[in-house]
Design a protein that fits this description.
Layout lengths: L26 H27 L7 E16 L5 E5 L7 E8 L16 E11 L2 E6 L7 E3 L6 H4 L3 E15 H7 L9 H9 L4 E6 L5 E7 L17 E11 L2 E5 L5 E3 L1
Parallel strand pairs: 3-5, 9-11
Antiparallel strand pairs: 1-2, 1-4, 2-3, 4-5, 4-6, 7-8, 7-10, 8-9, 10-11, 10-12
């Protein structure tokens, strides 16, 4: 008499090859696993290496939250909050440090009464190569205080030099994440975060990368040098092309072009 389907005959010749949950694995399975495990690990490691090698370098950004920095200089609110400090290591002797608040609420900082005045600020540095910003609490009494030192024209009104017009291809990103808070702080996966940061008052940056790997990060402004309006948000994190004017203001490069000059590519 034949047994029902799925029922194993207890009189079979090789009962040790039956699967029993509480019993040891059959010898043939043990041999297979011992041979397959090294191959599986090697294959997984090789696949991980191939995937990682195709990813872009996140760049030399850093978010130095373990150190509190204190800087003194001239507060400037246009086109974005920033401080100009004396730094002999900078080519012009003056370094520009962008000011951003913790989180995404930089627009909540009330800095107009401190514009072009000497101040001392305390916060955490965010930096990418030779670009720096200071992350501060949203409450002025916790990080900003008046300072007394001689103000120079280089601190208040640095030289403005037009480097000519150019058609550039790159990506619009928020400066804070791109400088080092997020790694990498760019690309489609960062679109929602970058849009929220720019909407919250964090300066937008135009990241341009040449075929030879050289990159430039330009502070984005309107054609008149003012802050970018919110209608730039739909283009954030997308590959875009724009024609505008490159302007050097002190040690910062600005790309001056209105929203209508940008187009997806």
């Amino acid at each position: 008499m034949s047994l029902p389907k799925g029922v194993i005959d207890p009189k079979q010749k090789n009962p040790e090859e039956m699967f029993i949950g509480w019993a040891d694995a059959p010898a043939i399975d043990r041999r297979f696993l011992l041979a397959a495990l090294p191959l599986g690990l090697a294959g997984a490691g090789g696949a991980a290496w191939l995937i990682a090698s195709e990813l872009d370098d996140p760049g030399a950004g850093a978010w130095l939250t373990n150190i509190t920095h204190e800087i003194s200089g001239a507060m400037v609110t246009h086109p974005y909050p920033m401080m100009r400090i004396v730094d002999q290591a900078a080519p012009s002797g003056v370094r520009t440090v962008l000011i951003v608040a913790q989180g995404k609420c930089t627009s909540a900082l009330q800095l107009n009464e401190h514009d072009t005045k000497p101040v001392t600020a305390v916060g955490a540095f965010i930096q990418r190569k030779d670009r720096q910003m200071l992350e501060v609490p949203p409450f002025l009494d916790r990080w900003l205080s008046p300072a007394t030192f001689e103000m120079t024209a280089a601190l208040i009104s640095p030289p403005v030099e037009s480097l000519g017009r150019a058609r550039l291809t790159g990506t619009i990103m928020d400066s804070k994440c791109f400088f080092g808070v997020m790694r990498p702080g760019r690309g489609k996966t960062h679109k929602a975060c970058a849009s929220l940061c720019i909407r919250g008052g964090i300066p937008p940056s135009f990241w341009v990368r040449a075929k030879d790997g050289r990159e430039s990060v330009l502070l984005m402004t309107t054609a008149e040098g003012g802050p970018m309006p919110m209608d730039i948000l739909p283009l954030v994190a997308d590959p875009v092309e724009a024609e505008g004017e490159i302007v050097r203001v002190g040690d910062l490069l600005q790309f001056r072009a209105d929203t209508g000059a940008y187009a997806r590519i």
